[in-house]
Amino acid sequence: MRIMSYAVRPGSAMLTVVLSACMVAAQGHPPATSGSASAAASAVASASAPRSPAWIGIPRVEGRLTSADIGLVINTADPYSVEVGEFYIRARKLTPKQVLRVELPVRPALTADEFRAFDRRVSAHFGSTTQALALAWAQPYAASCNSITAALGLGIDEELCQKSCDPPLRFSPYFNSASTRPYTDLGLRPSMLLAADDVASAKAMILRGVASDGTLGHRGAPPVNAYFVITPDAARNSRAPLFPPPGQISPVGIDVHVESIPALEGVPRVLLYMTGAVSVDKLDRIGWVPGAVADHLTSFGGALDGMSGQMTAKAWIASGATASYGTVSEPCSYPQKFPHPQVLLLQYAQGSSVIEAYWKSVAWPQQGVFIGEPLAAPFAHR
């Protein structure tokens, strides 16, 4: 994994991020994003330079995706998919028209042609009211060298396979947006794999997602903890300049910790854990809250078959997190290809579902696969 700077392509969705020292952005009253492309580009480029931590501005979000907005895809060739999919139908009370059953190869990646045939089935089945998708399987997680979740949302980018360390051709218009209707507003359906090590783990993950809804951010409740861990691995530490200032976000009850430690151990009420490492130790000693999110910046965290030799995103799910993210092909360490620490936290804390918060946090998601229970919304109070 080569080290890359947080370069900005003029006119891209990256320009919606504006660095701000104003804590009001972290207190649930984010300022509007700047309309000046040059000012925003300068601000984002400065993220790779040494600086004091500063909060960014994000747009105010009103509403979220709910079970009425989601479509579910089940692979009838995969017993895991059938059982997990049927469980998800019951857990989120989905109607028959919200479910598509297809037959796909059960292997890590679809070919480009196989993916296009699958994509046509999805487009033909789901109407304009379906804003997002849950995919009830762990494999296939890729389409050629693209993640299957990004290919469904943004289209497949075959050229990327010849230069996977370059910026992709597909920039996400959903990045750090205020949209709560991504298909209606942008023609994009974010998707997330209901992926876990086995059926029992997948069902437990789904139950954590359902149990999380509306549980956090209440006045007088004990705070939850968001941990951003700095490691000595320079290539995998590329997001560290984007970590937020440590301290308490009082209105939503989040304590932000920025630590230089090998791993967390014995920490209760963990909402978020973000680090950069090939593998992360002591995951079984973390006290996750329902709806927790976690990921590690490494090359093949999204290669869910585990054949890369690196820890996969499924390890976070096995330890008790509710959603995660990892890349399926060599991305190099462009931070834009991974969740932006502050966008993820602040979008989630506004009441968004986890599929919205995670998708909105990645500017270049073409190589990254999102996994978890997509509708988990611990900060949603209506």
Please, could you describe this protein's structure?
By secondary structure, the protein is of the alpha/beta class. Among the domains are: 13-57, no CATH class; 217-353, no CATH class. Helix content is 22%, strand content 19%. The chain has nine helices and 16 strands. The chain has helices at 37-45, 79-92, 112-125, 148-154, 182-186, 199-212, 314-319, 341-349, 354-360, and strands spanning 18-19, 56-57, 70-75, 99-102, 109-110, 132-135, 142-143, 146-147, 191-193, 224-229, 247-249, 254-259, 267-275, 286-296, 323-327, 368-372. The strands form five sheets. Strands 11-12-10-13-14 form a five-stranded mixed β-sheet. A four-stranded parallel β-sheet has the order 4-3-6-9, sandwiched between helices. Strands 5-7-8 form a three-stranded mixed β-sheet. A hairpin with a 2-residue loop joins strand 7 and strand 8. The longest helix is centred in the N-terminal third of the chain and has 14 residues, at 79-92. The model is unreliable at 2-50 (pLDDT under 50).
